[in-house]
Fold this protein.
Amino acid sequence: MANYIYGKVKRKQSVFRIIETETEVYKIAELNLNGVDYNPATLIENEELYQISNFSQSGYSFDFLNNDLDSVNHDQISKDDLKKLSFICTVQANLYFFQIINSSFYISKKWFSIEELSLETNKPIITINPFADAIYDKQTDILYFKKLPAAQKIFKGMDQLYKEATEAETDAFLQNEFLKVNDTFNVQKVTVPNRKRIALVNETLSHFSDDEKQAIYNYTNQYGQVSYEGGKFKIETDDDLKFVLWGIEQRFYTTPIGGEKRVANSVISI
């Protein structure tokens, strides 16, 4: 079965055909496409993948994936445009392997061929990573990826999956009635990680009833790292704020053996 490599050129809307090859670029038999539904609160191991199901309906997909693929409908890329690629896509059966292209993937040096024992001087090459930045399974309509910052360079808008609270949103959060913020601490002192957590917990809190909110505050207070008086957490530092945000995310737990209090650095719903 033929495999195709396509390329997206910077500042051009079209996806161009690059080459057709009988060689298997990626070893499909070695793939384990079993992902974890994407959640910013979930950290994955090196061998694991995030996934987004029903990707064609997500708003992040584009016509190249959504339409039936026929190589004759794509123009052959020019040599000049090969120097302006933003990403390449290798299509093998129903799998689309995406790789971002930047200057580090272009090699333009003198090199010699081991096979032909000849010195090459004017044949620059583009290298292909052993594992793609994103893999789309058209049959199941699932996108797999390891790192969101890489995937969002290909699929525009995916940064909204892990957005950072704006200054106005951060300031509004600090005005919440369950917080007592010290005069020396203000929105400018809230770090980027906490701004990202605020964006998440705003969504979480919006679905809680008043009783559920109070249960969360009591739960957070049980772990006792931030002063809690009169129904308010005293926020003097960015670490105080982080602790309260962890509480709202319900990251604290006590080990059943030993009773050790811990905080989870990653959360996966089961």
Remarks:
- Residues 167-263 form one domain.
